[in-house]
Amino acid sequence: MEDRKTILIVEDDKYIIHFLSISLKEEDYGLWVAKTVKEAVSLFYANRPDLVILDLGLPDGDGMEVIESIREIADTPVIVVSARQNEEEKIRALDAGADDYVTKPFYMGELQARIRAALRKRETYTPDKSSCFEQGDLSVDFEKRQVKVAGEEIHLTPIEYRILILLIANRGKVLTHNYILKEIWGYAEGVEAGTLRVFVATLRRKIEKNPSQPQHIVTEVGVGYRFR
Ligand code: CA
Predict the structure, then answer these.
(1) Which of 50, 71, 73, 130 could bond to 5 as cystine, CB 3.0-4.6 Å?
(2) How far is the CA of 222 from the centre of ligand 1 (A)?
C-alpha cells in the first residue's frame, strides 16, 4: 500500500471546511474533520494523523488547547490557520508547539506548500550516523528525540528541537537568520527574525546554564547563530 498522508482539519466554518476538503482530497490526502476542541482531541488520539490544520476560534474553546493536548503525546506537525493577526498570538501558538501559522484569508497554494514543507521536515530530520551528541552538560539522543542537561531530561517544543539539531548539525559554522528560517519553516516570508529570536531565547533558557552568557548557542550579531 502506498504511504498516503493523513490530515486532521480542525475548523468550524463550513465554507472553509468545504474548500479545504476539496483541495486536499485532490492532493490525495486522507482527511478527518473536527469542528470543536473536543472532537479534535478525540479524532487526533484515535487516528494519529500525519498533520493537523487548526483554526483557533472554535465554538467550545481555543485551538491552543488542541495544540497542548496533541503535544502531550506527539510531535505531529500543526499548522494554525487563523484570522487572528497579531504577533503575540502568533508567538503564543508557535510557543505552544505549533509548527507554522497562516493568516486568513490564505492562498490554497501557499497552504499546500507549507503542508508539504511540514511533512518533509518530519521525514528529513531523522539524523544519520551517530545517534547521540554530547557537549559539556548537554546531550541529545536523536533516536529517542531526547535532550538532557546535566543528566536531566528537558522538554523542547518541536521547533526548538529542530533549531537545536540544525545548529548541532552545522556546529562551528555561522547560520544566517534567513537560512535558519528557511530550514525550519520551509520559507522565509512571513516569519520574521524576531520570531526566531523568541525561539532561540526559550531554547537557551532550557539548555544554557546562564542564558545571558550562552556556552552552546552563540549570537553572531546582525548575522545569525552558531553552535560552539
Ligand atoms: Ca473559527
Answers:
(1) 50
(2) 39
Share of the chain above pLDDT 90, in %: 52
- Which stretch of DSSP H or E encloses residue 41? helix 37-47
Measure 15 CA to ligand 1 centroid, in angstroms: 11
Q: What is the pTM of this model?
A: 0.60
- CA separation for the pair 95, 66 (Å, rounded): 13
| Per-residue cell: 214 | 550562552
CA of 214 to the centre of ligand 1 (A): 41
The answer to whether 103 and 83 have CB atoms below 8 angstroms apart is yes
Q: Are 185 and 100 in contact (CB under 8 A)?
A: yes
Distance 116 CA to ligand 1 centre (A): 23
CB atoms inside a 10 Å sphere around CB 18: 12
Question: Which are the contacts of 187, defined by CB distance < 8 A and separation ≥ 6?
Answer: 113, 114, 117, 181
Q: How far does residue 205's CA lie from ligand 1's centre (Å)? A: 34
Distance (angstroms) between ligand 1 centre and the Cα of 16 equals 9
Give residue 113 CA to ligand 1 midpoint distance, Å: 22
C-alpha cell of residue 9: 482539519
The yes-or-no verdict on residue 87 having pLDDT over 70 is: yes
Cα(189) to centroid(ligand 1), Å: 25
The number of C-alpha atoms within 13 Å of 84 and in the hemisphere containing its C-beta is: 18
pLDDT tens profile 107-165? 888 899 999 988 887 665 544 545 788 989 999 988 788 999 999 999 998 889 889 98
